[in-house]
Amino acid sequence: MKIFGVAILAACFLVGHFIGEELGRFFNLSGNLGGVGIAMLLLVLLNHYLKKKEILKPETESGILFWSTMYIPVVVAMSATQNVKAALSGGWAAIMVAIIATAACYALIPLISRMAKNSQSYKPESNA
Amino acid sequence: MHELVKLLDKNGLIFAFLVVGFIMYVSYIASKRLTNNKIPGAAIAISAGLIIAYFGGDKGLASVSAFSGMALLGGSMLRDFSIVGTAMGASLTEIKKTGLIGLLCLVLGTIIAFFTGGTIGYLMGYTDAKSFATIGAGACTFIVGPVTGSAVGASSDVIAISIAIGVLKSILVTIITPFIANKLGIDNPQSAMIFGGLVGSTSGVSAGLAATDVKLVPYGALTATFHTAVGCLLCPSILYFIVNYYL
User: Fold this and answer.
1) For residue B247, what are the CA distances in angstroms to B44, B122, B144, B157, B174?
2) Where along chain B do its domains lie?
3) How far apart are CA B98 and CA B103, in angstroms?
4) Model pTM?
């Protein structure tokens, strides 16, 4: 049943958020430390395990896939509910910082990608 | 009319499905007819969302009555839920390949954003250590900014600027990524993870990748979600201490 997939997704989501909250508390920060990322890793591991054991039914999987395809519509709704006016009224300081800091991060991408490629060529097994 | 608004407000989430479905339908048609699929439909839909939000209030379109359900559909709960769902498309072997470099990107991305952001802020008149750190943290993501600001005790207008910087960054990343992804070589899981780790803003990275190539979303989102975590750890602590020492 599809709901099994949705339930698996919900379990990963909640466990991830719980760990994230606890980590936040541990480091004395208000907020969730990487809960979403932890939840994603859990789902990747679980998916890997269930597929290897061949016990993940396509019907169950489609319950998770439905929510992953809802991602773009959700992002569209998210953009439509941003405080765009306030972001633009942050003034020139905000706009300059945003543009230059973002550009600096982008500039590093090709550099590190190349580094990653070079380091991989020494490990033939990772080219599979 | 009043009755209709009441009905739509009461069934806000359902109406939001209809509204978003409509925005996406129009955007995909525009992508095909006007740009010959050169500009992805998702990119048009997301940009359209941002433009619509400009004419709304502090919650964008959701501030307009009848559209309040948009806040639920686009809120953090469903956003995170569907992001986690995209992990189904990610393969463990691809993630393992980038593991260490991904971690390096997270730290490097935070440091670069922090110091570039803080320096520009410094040049524009925010010269004390608290403001430097808060503005620099805002250049990481719009969550790191206020977290850092309240941790170091920055003034509320600086915190507001840091949020604005973070939001602007995610908007910039959303709009720019589909256009320059090819030039930067973001076309495989590894570079998507590097991109997510360096740039960070989860909403921007995943929206930008969604408009570039949907298959890359889980990889970028995976590292990007840790960017906020790393930022929240480093900015109010070690990076702030460094700034405080020199200013």
Assistant:
1) 44, 10, 21, 20, 34
2) 2-74, 87-246
3) 9
4) 0.75
To 10 degrees, the CA torsion angle through A95, B220, B227, A122? Answer: -120
Sort out which chain B residues have CB atoms less than 8 A from A68's CB and list them. 82, 85-89
A41-52 in b/e form (b: 16+ CB < 10 A) is bbbbebbeeeee
Kindly give the confidence (pLDDT) of every residue in chain B, 247 residues in length, as a single tens digit, with 9 standing for 90 and above: 788 999 998 999 999 999 999 999 999 999 889 987 767 777 788 788 888 988 988 888 998 888 999 999 988 789 888 888 888 877 777 778 777 888 888 899 999 999 999 999 999 888 999 999 999 999 998 778 887 888 888 887 788 788 788 878 888 888 888 888 888 888 888 889 899 999 987 778 888 888 888 889 888 988 887 887 788 878 888 898 899 888 8
Measured in angstroms, the CA of B211 and the nearest CA of chain A are apart by: 9
Each domain of chain A, given as residue ranges in start order, spans 1-82, 83-122
Checking phi first, is residue B37 left (phi over 0); if not, alpha (psi -120 to 50) or beta? left
Q: In A, which residues are within 8 Å of B104 by CB distance? A: 112
Substitution target in B52, B94, B168 with the highest count of A β-carbons within 10 Å is B168
Give how far A63 is from chain B: nearest CA, Å: 10
Out of B88, B109, B176, the one facing A43 most closely (by C-beta) is: B88
ipTM (interface predicted TM): 0.82
CB crowding B52-71: b at 16 or more within 10 Å, else e: bbeebeebbbbbeebbbbbb
